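Dear Dr. H.,

I hope your travels went smoothly. While you were away I took the liberty of generating a structure for the chain from your last submission, since the lab meeting agenda had it listed for discussion. I wanted you to have the full record in hand beforehand rather than looking at slides cold. The sequence, exactly as received, is reproduced here:
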Amino acid sequence: MNNKKFIFILLDAFRSDYINENNTPFLNSLKKKSIYYKQVNPSIGFCERSEIFTGKKSLELGFLTAINLSDESPYKRIKNFSILIHYFLKIFNFTIFDKITRRILWKYSKLIGKPMHPQNIPLNKLHLFGLTEDKKKYSEKNNYKFKTIFDLAREKNISINSKIFTSLNYVTNFSEEKRIQILFNTIHEYDMFLLYIDEADRIGHSFGPDSKEIIYSCLSIDNKINIINEYLKKNLKNYELLIVGDHGMEKVNHEYDIISKLNLIFKENKINLNKNIDYFVDSTILRIWIKNKSNYEIIKKIITNNSFLIDKGKFILPSESDDDKMKYSNYGDIIWWIKKNNIINPSYFSNNKKKCNGMHGYLDKNISKGTAIYYNSKNIKKEKINEIDLNKLFDHFSEFINSND
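The corresponding predicted structure, in token form, is as follows:
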């Protein structure tokens, strides 16, 4: 056990413009006596945590989105059961039964040791998909092809409390208040702490990133960070605090039902949709796998020539792209990104019953960014850095670990 502690706080979807004198008085004052990264640039997609833990961009890791086509789906063994339930619900349309079924499936995945919530994925397709960056526990040895902060810490006998963080494979996700309390209760038991605060993400999705609700949320988050810092000051002589908003969020102006659009495109061209392709629909990305590659040219033509899809988004064709784009190949034969300020709804993470007013994960580079503050209680460095890539914040973890020789 070391005298020095490292506390990493991830503020999910906390935008760079949220830190100011009115919205966040404490964070605004802390940035003036810290290394302050005004804008943090995540890679495209939805796998920011892996970037932080490895120091590599998400595509270098082979990650783009949280769920992907997989031979290791936790639901593969019960394929026939989930397909049967899918068609039963299609006939009788029992919404409450669908919810109960998904809860049972979630418990089943935990029981077999492969936790993955079924989200809103159609039950007849559930057996096709599995987790990507959260497939294994963070702390597992050699989790990725690059060393993680957990691998480096293990080599130096440095302990990490990641129970108060987040992952799609966590059996239990505590409330924010509980996570903070666990941090306080275990502050002398570990060397490093990974704390997750998701309030900005929750409020941003529901009310929008420029809403009055997000301003109240910023004040709430600021107060929580202030309370945490006061506790650290009273109980620790030496600590480092890294506070990171991993990405921003954009206002949603329009929702589009891409699933219905896809069905219509195939129907107009007299092609059977489900016999010819598998697809996954994120909130901003449509991914398509063509089952029979000999049909690639035909299917590519009818999809990429569709005027609606051309107008509302951008295509990436991994097999026809340069080396960088080849890294997309695991994520589909055809990838379509919707333009900023729009979302796909329903998607496999949502349904059209609940309006979404904020979203992230766009291909557009002209989007709001995250932000970061690094504070060292014993060695105060003041510096403002206008821009940094998210994966480069890994250096603060490795410097702390290497300082404990």
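Two observations you may find useful: The CA atoms of residues 153 and 401 lie 6 Å apart. The longest strand covers residues 5-11.

With kind regards,
E. W.
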